[in-house]
Amino acid sequence: MKEILRLEHIQKYYGNQGNITKAINDISFSISEGEFAGIMGASGSGKTTLLNCISTIDTVSAGHIYLDGGDVTEIKEKELARFRRENLGFIFQDFNLLDTLTISENIALALTIHHVPAHEIEGKVAEMAGTLNITDILDKYPYQVSGGQKQRCACARAMINKPKLLLADEPTGALDSHSSQMLLSTMQSINKQLGATILMVTHDAFSASYANRILFLRDGMIFTEILKGGDSRKAFFEKILDVLTMLGGGQSDVR
Questions:
Q1: Taking Cα atoms as reference points, which of 94, 87, 37, 89 lies closest to residue 222?
Q2: By the 8 A CB rule, do 14 and 34 touch?
Q3: How far lies 204's CA from each of 94, 175, 185, in Å?
């Protein structure tokens, strides 16, 4: 499998001399193309900071991050927005949809910014909406659809540019259990059917059980990692709970 993301000895400090907090302390790992990986850890373990560094929202204090062979940590400030648009997709906990645009227009936004011709946009939006089963709500506005439909719209928007890496930060945090299950199934299907490479930060064992590999953080370092392999989702869920118990907490209901 082709390596799409590689982190080499990442460190992130906050504060100044005499009062330094190490949010990330020498983390190294890689993600293969087409992988669905999760990052778990207690609050303050460094998982969100790590995601922010990978997404270039934050900068590392030391180390290097490579996406498809290019050094992300060397990108100049004025080129970061373009880099994110062309290479990364984002799924946020609170959807980040624009209420003044229809579902179709929200999905098309990234293509519009890239000046893709209108007739091409229409076809791409229709194809992605069909994949995520939201064709029937394309003409509605975000306030007219359910939380689960909003999140699938957010998935479609994140995937429309065929990003090299899809980053999801607590994607089920604002959803009820039914909508969470639908979203996670959707993410699993875009991983399998579209070959999307997904890196998801979550505190929830149920959400994590949809991934194929989980990295556990503690105190800014990798505590351990587990692979799903041939396990059923339920068996993987139990393994995740076992590690969380070792880490000192984290429970979730089997759904």
A1: 37
A2: no
A3: 16, 12, 15
Spatial contact of 145 and 194, defined as CB atoms under 8 Å apart: no
Residue 250 reports pLDDT greater than 60: no
Q: How many CB atoms lie within 10 A of CB 108?
A: 23
Smallest CA-to-CA distance from 202 within 59, 43, 58 is with 43
C-beta separation of 10 from 28 below 8 A: yes
Contact between 167 and 121 (Cβ < 8 Å)? no
In this structure, are strands 198-201 and 165-169 parallel, antiparallel, or unpaired? parallel
Backbone phi and psi for residue 98, each to the nearest 5 degrees, phi listed first: -95, 120
Domain range list for the chain: 3-247
Contact between residue 188 and residue 210 where contact means Cβ atoms under 8 Å apart: yes
Q: pTM for this structure?
A: 0.89
CATH (residue range 3-247): 3.40.50.300
Grouping H, G, I as helix, E, B as strand and the rest as coil, residue 234 is: helix
The secondary structure of 40-101 as a DSSP string is E--TTSSHHHHHHHHTTSS--SEEEEEETTEEGGG--GGGHHHHHHHHEEEE-TT----TTS
Residues 255 and 177 sit within 8 Å (Cβ to Cβ): yes
Q: How does pLDDT run across 219-233, given as a tens digit for each residue?
A: 999 999 999 999 999
Tokens at 203, concatenated: 């505190």
Say which residue the tokens 């993987």 belong to.
236
Instruction: Tell me the three state secondary structure of residue 235.
Output: helix
Tens digits of residue pLDDT in 76-100: 999 998 899 889 999 877 778 999 9
